[in-house]
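Action item from last week, closing it out:
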Amino acid sequence: MDSMLTITDVSRRSGVASSALRFYEERGLIASERAGSGHRRYPRSVLRRVAFIVFAQRIGLTLEEIGAELTKLPADRVPSRRDWSRLSGEWTKRIDQRIAELQRLRSGLTECIGCGCLSIDRCSLANPADMAGRKGPGPRYWLG
């Protein structure tokens, strides 16, 4: 237990609130052991898992997706560079999709909303003759 970290230690070193760490534990994303006093004690490797969770959330993964990704990591050792590389390589496509979506949004801001009319069904610049309406309901240009 001497090499184990308290929840305060993990929070301080990871920058993640103790309440979030307890939430991650409830969701099965991280695990702790209980000391004789009942307090949580975490192995040092939990710091890497917490960093992984924070990074994955910033990429846009849901907690369910993060949980699925974490099951691909070894439970009995600290993940290696190869382990991380394998997982992060799978995320490249997702990041590229987000970049493309953000570029479409930026384009929409300057091409449509920039003119001030906000009338996408009548806009002769962004949607001449309501061509988007023929493709189906909803924001067709944003859906790709």
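Closing note: The first strand starts at residue 5 and ends at 6.
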